[in-house]
Write a structure and sequence with these properties.
about 0% strand; single chain; mainly alpha
Length: about 120
């Protein structure tokens, strides 16, 4: 008879999940700011050139970039919502503990649960 070990996928790969979490966090903050700043620069150039067609095109571009920035800002929130939906399907405590490690490391990479899991692997 085979003896099944407790699942350890998330706790084993906790440093990887933490890196993914930090990357998502950086995307959430930096990319929307960069997108909006570049849009404002383009709009400023069009206003200085004082051509109506270029101003309209730059305003449309700025609006599209702002929408893209907002969407990128909410990607970590969407990932967290998906994780919470998936997490509700598991009743087994062993799987839930592993799931919590994955979820915390991706959505909150600096929190205590993730830090403890990463230090346990090291």
């Amino acid at each position: 008879m085979l003896i099944m070990e407790a699942p350890s996928f998330c706790s084993t790969l906790a440093p990887v999940w933490q890196i993914i979490g930090w990357v998502l966090w950086v995307f959430k903050i930096v990319i929307p700011i960069v997108i909006i700043v570049f849009g404002m620069i383009d709009l400023g150039k069009a206003v200085v050139a004082s051509k109506d067609d270029e101003i309209k095109k730059s305003v449309k571009s700025l609006v599209m970039r702002a929408i893209a920035g907002i969407i990128i800002f909410f990607i970590p929130t969407i990932v967290g919502a998906i994780f919470s939906l998936v997490g509700e399907f598991r009743d087994d405590e062993e799987y839930k503990a592993e799931y919590d490690i994955c979820s915390e490391c991706i959505t909150h990479p600096g929190d205590e649960v993730c830090e403890n899991a990463v230090s346990d692997v090291s």
